[in-house]
Amino acid sequence: MGITSENDIKQIGTEILDDMLRCNTVCTDISTFKKTEYKVMEDFIDWLYHNLPSMSYVVDRIINFIFSNGLTTGDEEQDKKLDAFLYAQNIQGVSNLNVLREAIKQALVFGKNGIRWLGDDGIINVNSRHYACLLEDNETHYGFKEVIGFIVSVCGEKIWDMNTEELDFDRDLFERTGVVIDKDRKIMILSKDELLNLRNDTSKNDGVSPLKYDQQRLQLLAAFYERLNHDIIYDGPGRILLRVNKNYTGENAQSTGQILNQGQAARDGRTEKIKKEIEDIGKQIKKSSSDNVIAISDYFDGDIEHLPRVTKATELLKWATENEGRIIAQMLGISPTLVGVDKISGNISQDKIIDKDMLGDIIPLREKFAVQISTWIADKIGVRYIYFDKYEMKQVVDENDSRMKVVKQAIDIRRYGNEQDQRVADGLMDMLDGDIRTANGELKTLATKKVGFFKKILNIITRKKERN
After folding, report:
1. How far apart are CA 187 and CA 157, in angstroms?
2. What are the boundaries of each domain within the chain?
3. pTM beyond 0.70
4. CB of 385 closer than 8 Å to CB of 72
5. Residue 67: Cβ within 10 Å count
6. Which of 156, 292, 355, 400, by CA, is between 20 and 30 Å from 136?
7. 162: left (phi over 0), alpha (psi -120 to 50) or beta
8. What is the pLDDT, as a whole number, of residue 317?
9. Distance from first CA to last CA of the chain, Å, rounded?
């Protein structure tokens, strides 16, 4: 039966809302968080992101490389529409371009990040901890659950900490505006057209944070910085060994009074006093600094033994500063040399390294995110598709800059030099000609727009040689 009236539309909408209410937690990914202890893991990842010194630096460098060539549609006219959208400010006064940059950054670290469409008010980010997928059994192919929408926390609480089993949605607001939100204005439902679930691994509904892996090294780094901070704040001596005076344990008694005082109750009393003093001294030593003075009674022998630490945090500082950035880059799937946290060994061109790493690491990342962004945004802003512009090989560009210098020098020599200078200019031109031509005399393939210019220069030089 077809839909014939506005009332029919409202009735169908209300039935869908009823299905969502019955579904609640059972049909969302919220339940999986607690089963897999994802809540604890996400908190740990958040701690790493905000506390490891190199984390922000490495991630920012990766984002800069991803966006280094900009976004394009491949069409000059459609690029105008794209640029108008990218540089427009959203409802929060942030450019849509910066929203996309932040979204990809969050997806790199946490595995996913939501982007919400607000129409003329632009796009905004939804933190990975504030939304989850709404799932439903696929009734066509069976055997799997498909994403039909998203349940979103709009009050700042983590979605898995919220009670989603007894939600009371505002039916009146839904019928008037189509917005599905509870009466307390804490949780709302968004469609796939309203929210993009941007992920670094599209095979998983929640993506996957690379920081969930290699946790041994990450925990080592976390423990190191915590230990270092503790040592700086509390620069006490470390472990101290105190020996109890034998005269107070009942051995080597020196007088009749002491002998008469060796009853069980007296010994227990002295033992408790010694234990209490050991505990008090221990607390003083633990919190002590270099200028503290600590006194002990004659319960203890005069000699105090200091047990030095096997591992000192200060001795690991050099190791951490040299390896932390490298570890983080490797975990994020990026060559450490590209983001400047690793030394270059051997006589290798920096340009070659950048080109190799851009082609092997950054471009695949670009494509992974560009496909998701294009599929979701392109139709909304009236363009066919969106992708990151082509990367021009840095080594080739630098080589062409060197050739340009040779061309300019040769032209100046030809213009102002004497006969001997003319021969030098011819030598420079021959060298340039041999540098950019193959053994068969054909022009080498160069990934740069300057190829046509060099070809014109060579033709001019050739004609001048023929006339001379």
Report:
1. 10
2. 239-308, 394-467
3. no
4. no
5. 16
6. 156
7. beta
8. 76
9. 88
